[in-house]
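Handout, page 2. Input:
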Amino acid sequence: MGTNADDAMQGPPKLLIAVAGMLGLSGSILILSRGWHDPILVTYAGIWAVVVLVSVMWIHRSHLLRERFHPPGDRASALLEPAAMLLLVSMVILGGAYEGRAWRGSMIWSQESRIAALLIVATGLSVSLASVVANRFYSIYLHVQADKGHTVVTGGPYRWIRHPAYLGMVLWGLASPVALGGVLAIVPAAAYAVCVVVRTEREDRFLRGHLPGYAEYAGRVRFRMIPGLW
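Output:
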């Protein structure tokens, strides 16, 4: 079992590696695709850079850092995070690098469509970040944090839907292919959206059965991800 001191020693180097890796990925969007001449790609990479930095800073300040290094028993529930990274890389390669460079003439999205998609990406990432900040029990692992006094979170975006972070993920995931200017990137984007929906269903069922008060909360806030629909 690790200690807080162990986390303090491990945290900064691993966080720096994570930040460097994600910022490198953001830069690769520009280098591998249409270079620095596409303002939409520059903005897309910049949005991701900001989100990564803010996310890592938040994780470093919270108990989520400890979970990254000493995860609970149900590690299978954390597959969404590496799957998200894998599909993000796939979207970058298929959307930016492959179609933007090798198939330069295959761009079918108008500039207006790409700008609108970029706004949706920014909105989705903002919703996910706001959800993580509002929910101090947010975790990629599917478990009840009894040692931290885990309770149902009803503030922030959780007032309207039960899984706002996942709504944000679906928004930026589906909008990314259009913002990147790629057609083939729709395939990993759709796969990612399906993974998120499946995770949402599984998590909702788990919380109903294990987290006191969640069933009552679900009765008041009826919709999982899409207000008025689902």
